[in-house]
Design brief:
434 residues, mainly alpha, MFS_trans_sf, transmembrane helix, MFS, membrane, transmembrane
Length: 434
């Protein structure tokens, strides 16, 4: 098996790249091929799990099927995203106590699988408000475990995979998940009009198996011991690391840039809502957008990953510009030629381009922060950045919700302006792949 991994790795990378072990321990270099494929498989499995428990599709449908209050549906996405980001500063202080940090990822993945399965059981045994709050409560625990995986994964990636290969690893795992997401989207067409609880529970149970399988694969990653300084008092250490935003100009610049690049994620629901307003011309459904996003990830992630290995900074710039220009085009069409939205291909095409841009933003910023830091600094950078971004996500989500009272185009225009500012901020960031 080890020889097979070596051979496949050699085919994927040229001889120079395969032998270059930048920024990792020399003894870890021999294990790069095996670790590369273990991490790809485990990340791909969890991304597929995310697709079959999507908080914009499966969980809302499940809450509706069990008769939960409508207000609870609005809590799903903020809890899923911000809930995994905000606590990361404290989580990182805990993770620092471990010299081998893959076990934090394994534990987080096991907990996520258990929460997803518990949601399915709650939906089968409970109804109404009790079922709804049970699922939302489990989603809180799920999000905390997701944050644990996020902190640990970037540190393990930095210790086991050389700089010239990290972007492509993220790209190929996203592409793998994108392929399965297409199938998930197509499959959801057949159940989108059904209210049978067991359909959604079966999807969640399948997701639980995926997370547990991912944990088993990830446990086989060969990770060498790292430093554990600062892990004695996790809370004190975590709070002290907020000082990084004052003392480290590069990290502060990156956090501001990443905050502006939230425009790609925050825009998506408004494009879906815009499409639903023109459903008389195109019977658009959430399932179709899931399939579209899967196709976009499948096609674009390998490109963005390869590009990120050369310059993750340039990836962020290009993706932000595409997001901003797309929004300005949509606003212009709405103002001067709104009938164009009635064409069957326009709005799906818009969402396809947006998903490609968001994939670039995501891969670019993930690769940049891993390559920007070294050693224990990487855990601090990731946790401080993610915690602040979690708060910014809640804040900007509230602002866009407030702006929506003046119409979708106002929201899209403001987010496009933020995207342009994000591109300008990214231009001033230093290169970290050299």
């Amino acid at each position: 098996m080890h020889k097979l991994a070596d051979d496949l790795h050699q085919k994927l990378f040229n001889e120079e790249d395969a032998r270059a072990c930048k920024d990792i321990d020399g003894s870890a270099c021999r294990e790069v091929p095996g670790n590369f494929f273990r991490i790809i498989v485990s990340q791909g499995l969890t991304k597929i799990g995310d697709a079959v428990s999507n908080p914009k599709i499966v969980l809302p449908a499940l809450l509706t099927a069990v008769g939960a209050p409508l207000a609870l549906i609005g809590l799903l996405v903020p809890i899923r995203e911000a809930g995994s980001l905000v606590p990361q500063l404290g989580i990182a202080g805990y993770v620092r106590q471990f010299a081998v940090r893959k076990w934090a990822w394994v534990a987080g993945s096991v907990i996520q699988g258990a929460c997803i399965l518990a949601m399915a059981i709650a939906a089968l045994l409970l109804t109404g408000q009790v079922a709804g709050w049970s699922i939302v409560g489990l989603l809180v625990v799920f999000s905390l475990a997701r944050g644990l995986c996020s902190v640990a994964s970037k540190d393990v990636l930095g210790k086991t995979i050389p700089k010239p290969q990290r972007g492509r690893l993220n790209g190929w795992s996203s592409s793998l998940a994108g392929a399965v997401t297409i199938a998930a989207g197509v499959g959801l067409f057949s159940v989108s009009d059904q209210q049978h609880v067991w359909v959604y529970c079966a999807l969640l149970a399948f997701g639980a198996v995926l997370w547990w399988t991912a944990a088993a694969v990830y446990s086989q990653v060969d990770e060498y011991e790292g430093a554990t300084e600062g892990g004695a008092n996790a809370l004190t250490h975590a709070l002290s690391k907020l000082r990084l935003l004052v003392d480290d100009r590069r990290l502060r610049h990156f956090v501001i840039t990443r905050s502006l690049l939230l425009c790609s994620a925050l825009s998506a629901p408004y494009y879906v809502l815009l499409a639903s307003q023109h459903s008389q011309a195109l019977a658009i459904t959430t399932a179709s957008f899931v399939a579209i996003s899967g196709i976009a990830s499948l096609l674009s992630a390998p490109f963005w990953g390869l590009f990120a290995d050369r310059s993750s900074r340039q990836v962020m710039i290009m993706a932000a510009v595409v997001t901003a220009l797309l929004g300005l085009v949509v606003v212009s069409i709405s103002h001067w030629y709104p009938a164009l939205f009635s064409l069957a291909w326009v709005l799906p095409g818009v969402y396809f381009v947006l998903t490609i841009a968001h994939e670039g933003v995501r891969l670019g910023r993930k690769t940049y922060i891993v390559n920007m830091a070294e050693g224990n600094q990487r855990t601090d950078y990731v946790s401080v950045s993610n915690t602040l971004i979690g708060f910014m996500l809640l804040f900007m989500g509230g602002v866009t919700a407030w702006l929506s009272q003046w119409g979708l185009m106002v929201v899209i225009a403001v987010l496009s302006a933020l995207g342009l500012l994000g591109a300008l901020m990214a231009r001033a960031l230093p290169e970290v792949e050299r």
